[in-house]
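Quick one, T. Sequence first:
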Amino acid sequence: MMVGVVVACSSVSSIKALWETRIRKRREEQEEEQKRRLTRGGATGRLCVGVWEDRVTLARLKQKLQTEDGRLVLRIEQEEWKTLPGCLIQLSQVQEWQIHRTGLLKIPHFISSFQNLLVLDLSRNGVTEIPKQIGKLTGLRELLLSYNRIQFVPEELSGCDSLERLELAMNWDLHELPDQLGTLSRLQHVDLSMNNFSHLPACLLALPALEWLDMGGNCLQDLPEDIHRMEMLHTLWLQRNELEKLPENITRMRSLDTLVLSSNRLRHIPPLMEDMSNLRFVNFRDNPLTLDVTLPSREAAAEDEEEDDREMFGKEFMLMYIQEARKRAYAVLNMHSINQSDDESSE
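Structure tokens:
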């Protein structure tokens, strides 16, 4: 009898344990299912929020669109946009970006989607690099990135075949350009002022259409001997550098009409510059020139004082300096000849 009772109790305990296990497993499955539902619901919620935010941002960007001179322009001034949202791609018909003083840190890689872009002006921001994708903008005419923090220019920029204007002034640590940029056959205007260039980039000499170049405020110590290769150049700004002399071949730059050399370390003016009839304006102010040359005084009305001040270190000054240097050289030669004759006579 006792054996039967034990067997019955054992069976009841087994059945109870089995049901408890099933109940616990079922409860765990329900909890897991609930978690999955919550997760799916959260993802869907976040997706909905993301879509809503994109729509708001896109609507905000559309308010920045303007039509100027027949071009569709995106203009953002003095608002915080450290990054540009991906939804901007939906405005790929924009032809000109004017984004200034926004704190923008980078040019988005999706810039290559803007095949209608003619002008990319991101001056006065915090941009640190130019993405390689920019080379796909074959119709881009102007790239203006002055007053940023760019340290490196990618060779892919040479893919912008239509580029006519490149401005990279005041990027401080920028000190070189890739040789590949010499293939930009339409590039006419280059501003590299207030950077850290110690020499004139070789690619500039190869640009066939270059007309205007500003390299003032760098640390140039000399100019290349073949500077005359820039045949179309008419304006050259070299103020506030460390130039001690000018190459003779600068006199072969037949298109040059404006040459600014103020605040360098020049001690001489090449005599052959006297024949540069095309030169309209030249400035040698604040250079330690060897000769002390003063232009003859002349009567001038008060309104002409500013012009006289500019001319004081202009072309008239240059010509007079060369003439004075020539006179002194002849005087030294004559004195040497006289001394030599006296020596021969005494013998």
